[in-house]
Amino acid sequence: MNYYAIGDMKKIMMKIDAHLRTRLRVILWKQWKVPSGRYHGLRKLRINHNLARQTSYMGDRYQFFATKTCVMSAISKQRLTNNGLVSCLDYYLIRHKLKFN
Prior knowledge:
Blueprint: H1 10-31, H2 35-44, H3 49-56, H4 62-68, H5 70-74, H6 77-82, H7 88-99
């Protein structure tokens, strides 16, 4: 990242960052395995009862759940950042700014 900070890679970093967060959501959804586990996982993340129940029992379309349902809002960028995920885009912008100052 430090070597390539000179170039303009903002769009690429945005795509990489979004893909990485989506993959982490898919992995988490797969770890919850059964609908009851998914329901309890969503409830722990403060999704209301009806939405958690509806989402949990829909099936196993992982990419759809990670991008289009309440899973995306439950496992948000802020929550991932609080749990230790360093955003590629944020790190790139910091390094890019330092190269030109």
